Amino acid sequence: MPGDRFYVVARGAFDVLVDGESVARLGAGDYFGERALLHDAPRAATVQATQAGLVFSLDRTAFQATLAHDLATQAKLEAALAYRAEVAGMPLFRDLSPSELDLLLARLVPVAAAAGEEIVRQGEPGDRFYVVRSGMVQVLRDGRPLATLGPGEAFGEIALLLDVPRTATVRAVEPTELLALNAADFRDLLAGYCGRAAALEQMSHRRLGAQRQPTLGPV
């Protein structure tokens, strides 16, 4: 249902339910209902009292006049911090210093791929390096499946490190979100300034060796 009010819990306990499953518990001082109002979208969850309580509410007009800007700013900050933590937790970026991570975050470009879409194609020039954020991709060489890669795994380094055409095709198995670095940022920032050249070279050597066998490999 569409969102028309914002609520603040004065007392009591409330469960937040998504598809019938509890995903959060709210108590005094917590609030809910802001997302549907901020994004003009239907409610994404059900909030159910688990004990007698009291809530205060604002209608859409009052919410927009008094709280919308502050909560939108807070939501953006929380999203940015969550994104930073997500990238910092990826294996290739795990040991970066805060300043290195900040530079990398400024250069990473989000890329969406639909199921079945080719992200890179064997034989074409390499212009980007990719890390899987969510979803799954399949690596194929001469049409033969070599590997599947999931969140946190990377591909595209071989063509950029060795300055050769793509050695395999990478195709999204399902709707997939990726983070991409262009060739210059890959070489100068990630491999150079961030000191990931050795790790990237080891990755490419493993994959080149694996591509000569029936399993494994990227690009």
Annotate the secondary structure layout.
Blueprint: E1 5-11, E2 14-18, E3 21-26, E4 31-32, H1 34-39, E5 46-49, E6 54-59, H2 60-66, H3 68-88, H4 98-107, E7 109-113, E8 118-120, E9 128-134, E10 137-141, E11 144-149, E12 154-155, H5 157-162, E13 169-172, E14 176-182, H6 183-193, H7 197-210
Antiparallel strand pairs: 1-4, 1-6, 2-3, 2-5, 7-14, 8-13, 9-12, 9-14, 10-11, 10-13
Helix pairs in contact: 4-6
Q: How would you describe this structure to a colleague?
A:
- With 219 residues, the chain is of the alpha+beta class.
- The protein has 2 domains: 5-81, Jelly Rolls; 89-210, Sandwich (Jelly Rolls), CATH 2.60.120.10.
- It has helices at residues 34-39, 60-66, 68-88, 98-107, 157-162, 183-193, 197-210, and strands spanning 5-11, 14-18, 21-26, 31-32, 46-49, 54-59, 109-113, 118-120, 128-134, 137-141, 144-149, 154-155, 169-172, 176-182.
- Strands 7-14-9-12 form a 4-stranded antiparallel beta sheet. The protein has a 4-stranded antiparallel beta sheet with strand order 8-13-10-11, with no helix packed on it.
- A hairpin with a 2-residue loop joins strand 2 and strand 3 (21-26).
- Helix 4 packs antiparallel against helix 6 (183-193).
- It is elongated.
- The mean pLDDT is 88.
Structural class, from secondary structure content? alpha+beta
Walk across the major sheet and give the strand order.
7-14-9-12
Largest sheet: 4 strands, antiparallel
Task: Determine the fraction of residues in helical runs and give it as a percent range.
Answer: 25-40%
Count the strands? 14
Low-confidence stretches: none
Report strand %: 25-35%
Shape: elongated
CATH superfamily of the largest domain: Jelly Rolls
User: How many separate domains?
Assistant: 2
- Do you know the CATH architecture of the largest domain? Sandwich
CATH top level of the largest domain?
A: Mainly Beta
> What series of H and E elements makes up the topology?
EEEEHEEHHHEEEEEEHEEHH
And the CATH topology of the largest domain?
Jelly Rolls
